[in-house]
Amino acid sequence: MISSNDFKNGMAIEYEGDLLEIIYFQHVKPGKGGAFVRTKLKNLINGTIFEKTFRAGEKVEQAILETKKMQFLYKDEHYNFMDNETFEQLSIDETSIGNKKQYLIENLEITMIFYKGNPISIELPTFIEAEIISTEPGVKGDTVSNAFKPAEIITGAKVNVPLFIENGDKIRIDTRTGDYITRV
Prior knowledge:
CATH topology of the largest domain: SH3 type barrels
Shape: flat
Strand content: over 45%
Order of helices and strands: EEEEEEEEEHEEEEEEE
Number of domains: 3
Radius of gyration: 21 Å
CATH architecture of the largest domain: Roll
Helix content: under 10%
Number of strands: 16
């Protein structure tokens, strides 16, 4: 058990049967009345974000999360991963992956997060390299500063790229924002 006074951003807690991550917290001591801690929490199972106020010193259960480096193998009806140390394979469903599926490329090394031995989510590397499979050709003379066009990468995700990028080019993408970084 930890006190609400010990909250830190990114900490995982169990509250009312839910597994939550503290996105933001603020300790407030008003001039009148008792102190309290205002928090913004994210449910790690279903991804909902909500705000909750705790009394100062209120006890909650700290959740212990484990992480493992794993490799994405392939997708069939589930997403299949391999543990890099034991070579065991693990299949998880799409709900645990969420929107991160658009950046999952075969053989990509990810970090899988486990709670009580069960996988709950994945963390992608900050940048990935992917091949462009479809984009419109850039027209010569159609260059305005910072002109972009839509492109589709090998996973099916849409990315805005500069006009000089063509089909078959490899690009680096920031997985946090989905933005084009550079041509590889």
